[in-house]
UniProtKB/TrEMBL annotation:
The keyword Membrane applies. It is a multi-pass membrane protein. The chain crosses the membrane at residues 12-31, 93-117, 129-151, 180-200. This is LHFPL tetraspan subfamily member 2a. It is found in: Membrane. Belongs to the LHFP family. The lineage of its organism: Eukaryota, Metazoa, Chordata, Craniata, Vertebrata. Pfam families: L_HMGIC_fpl. One of its GO terms (biological process) is single fertilization. Keywords: Fertilization, Membrane, Transmembrane, Transmembrane helix. InterPro entries: LHFPL. GO terms for cellular component: membrane. The keyword Membrane applies. It comes from Nothobranchius furzeri.
């Protein structure tokens, strides 16, 4: 018989696990890792002077994508991948970053999917599903840390120097500033470790004496604070 067990701690862990997975996924796909120095594309002149195409803007560069404003166009900022193939990513360090981040995100997405079903299933192969998920989140966090540590080492690549100037070098961003995606990835990594630790509390909450008492009473839906 399936017992649906809902507690505040288990629901909070599930919610945080989903937020961490989606946060890391959105950050990885974003082009806002580095924000380039202000520049002005070639102005387009018309009857009333320069058009908006000549206004200053700051291009952005992600791990495999970028946002730029092309001169002589009215399409505004264009965003898309600059690397069609894995080997075209700006540097070997960023390739390693992609691998580690992708591995961590894959584990986080798997845990987020499993966490939805922890209300009904609390064990797998006689092991606590919360402990297993907590272990996977800890491993994912290590992958994410490795990826974020290697990412600044790629700032000396030719691609980055186009956006950040010739002063950019490994672990020195030159004229660039960090975009929201980098901070989101850092925040998601911290949240991942919080979830890994908090999974133990979720396990305790769903296996408490109060839960066992309600199971013995024959209840199939158990909600506890």
């Amino acid at each position: 018989m399936c017992h649906v067990i809902v507690t505040c701690r288990s629901m909070l862990w599930t919610l945080l696990s989903i937020v961490a997975a989606f946060g890391e996924l959105i950050a990885f796909m974003s082009t806002d890792w580095l924000v380039g120095y202000p520049r002005t594309p070639d102005a387009v002149f018309g009857p009333h002077g320069a058009t908006a195409a000549g206004e200053a803007y700051r291009p952005t560069l992600g791990i495999y994508g970028r946002c730029v404003k092309l001169p002589h166009t009215h399409r505004g900022v264009l965003c898309g991948p600059y690397a069609v193939h894995f080997g075209e990513i700006a540097s070997g360090f960023w390739q390693a970053t992609s691998i580690f981040l992708a591995a961590g995100i894959l584990l986080l997405c798997a845990v987020a999917f499993i966490s939805v079903f922890t209300m009904c299933f609390q064990s797998i192969m006689k092991k606590s599903i919360f402990n297993v998920c907590g272990l996977l989140q800890g491993i994912a966090g290590l992958f994410l840390i490795l990826g974020l540590m290697l990412y600044p080492a790629g700032w000396g690549s030719d691609k980055v120097q186009v956006y950040c100037g010739q002063d950019s070098a490994p672990y020195r961003a030159g004229l660039c500033s960090m975009g929201w995606a980098f901070y989101t990835a850092m925040g998601g990594t911290v949240l991942t470790f919080i979830c890994a630790v908090f999974s133990a509390q979720a396990e305790i909450a769903t296996s408490s004496d109060k839960v066992q008492e309600e199971i013995e009473e024959g209840k199939s839906l158990i909600c506890l604070l």
